[in-house]
Amino acid sequence: MLFSRTAEDFLISHGIHPDQIDMEKLCQQFLGEMERGLRGEPSSLAMLATYVAVKEDIPKEKPVLVLDAGGTNFRACLVEFDQAGNSHISRYGKYRMPGSEGELTKKDFFGTIAEFAAPLAEHTDTVGFCFSYPTESTPERDGKVLHFSKEVQAQEVIGELVGENVRRELKKLLPDHDWNFCILNDTAATLLAGKIASKEDSYSGYIGFILGTGTNTSYVESSGRIGKIPRESFDGDNQIINVESGGFAVDLSDLDMQFYQKTKNPDSYHFEKIVSGAYLGPYILHVLKQAAREGIFSERTRNAVESLESLTTIEMDDLLHTPDEPSVLHDVCGENQLDRSLMYQIADRMVERAARLSAVNLSAAVLRTDAGMDPTRPVCINADGTTFLKTHHLKKYTQAYLDDFLVDQYNRYYELIHIENSPILGAAIAGLQNR
Description:
Layout: H1 5-13, H2 23-39, E1 48-49, E2 64-70, E3 73-81, E4 87-96, H3 106-121, E5 126-131, E6 135-137, E7 143-145, H4 162-173, E8 180-184, H5 186-193, E9 205-211, E10 215-222, E11 238-242, H6 254-260, H7 272-275, H8 277-293, H9 299-307, H10 313-321, H11 328-333, H12 337-367, E12 379-384, H13 386-390, H14 394-407, E13 414-417, H15 422-433
Parallel strand pairs: 2-5, 5-8, 9-12, 12-13
Antiparallel strand pairs: 1-11, 2-3, 3-4, 6-7, 9-10, 10-11
Helix pairs in contact: 1-12, 2-12, 3-4, 5-15, 8-9, 8-10, 8-12, 12-14
């Protein structure tokens, strides 16, 4: 597409054009924050230890109970890998997340989970639990609940160990059985699900990447390089690190800073607020309103943009996918094709900017390791999240920037994949490999 100088000049004047992102400088900043986070020093990246290792072989023909808690849904199933490494999901059940329909006590919260799990728990002694709420991992591969997002109400659960409490409630229902639990979050599970795509050690490393409502990254770190935890607390050579990459402190422009002030907790999670699905649409509306004030659009469109109270990422993406079809932004422009073209170009550049920033994030995760140096054994990046997979050109732009920066400049090689049901399959692998 031939971009209008009007749109380009506006973006450049505010420092939000994708080309104005110095990938090398930002990547080094990201790596510096990673290092400080691993040492336990002040950092915008939490760099959370998971105590979950990545091992070569996935145990075969051994059923594992998988529990998956996130958002308003709770899932339970059995997973087994055959001799060829193929996964088989059975006895699948989907339920409302405990606490999503009203406040629950600790006993009721964990008791409900045990009731969901009990019909399957008698078939195995291994549980992989993808618990996608903020937790502090323990060397026993349990997770202490730090807090819940607002859709789950269970105040008595804060500070409690997930695996220990579910196991206790399950023992009441199945007193003759016992289980080994492994608790991890969705990003770590996404990383491990990449193991399914590996044939004969075809990958030299693994990264889990989620860009959906929020964004996060996980990678594999040598245990001896995690300064903030005692080396004796973990007996494995490596473990998955939950970067909490959405927290990366990045202040690139005046419009970024203004937008942060409109969000909840304006001093935190800056990176997430300019790339992820919960914020990308609102951020682009913020940019379009500034463009309107500067006279980029006709008077009619300017007034319509100024009166627009909200814009979701999906609504923004409708214009990019089908610019000539009715949508929120299409209707704002009315019959003015020039305004629609300018609006399309600004939105597209903002998506491209999110892609360039995501490529910085992923490049830093690869460069932190020794993986990907041999093109025959690239790093496996298992990517998940509807924003990344469905937003117009976001995945394509991210790959292009990874090729230009990570491959061409650093000679590090990667393969970007997507494994269906990654949280379930990754949790199964975690449970089987980390006993």
